[in-house]
Amino acid sequence: MSNSPFYKKAFPEIKEKNKDKFTNWVKSNMPGKSTCSAASIIMKAKKNKYSSDVRSMANYANNFGCKK
Question: Which residue ranges in the chain fall short of pLDDT 70?
């Protein structure tokens, strides 16, 4: 175990009201794209192209759901 203050023991959970929010956004706004590929596209795009809410959901998906 690490004693680092940045080390977190548990996976950051998504609140129940926010579950599938990004997946549903991707299905309606980027048909044919997977959630991970859409998250990657959003994070590479200019910051003002997508709202901060969408960018934060994409960042979460990239960091915790799309790593292999």
Answer: 1-11, 68
Determine contact, residues 40/66, Cβ cutoff 8 Å.
yes
Tokens, residue 62: 């990239």
> pTM value?
0.76
Compute the chain's Rg from CA coordinates: 14
What confidence score (pLDDT) does residue 15 get?
A: 87
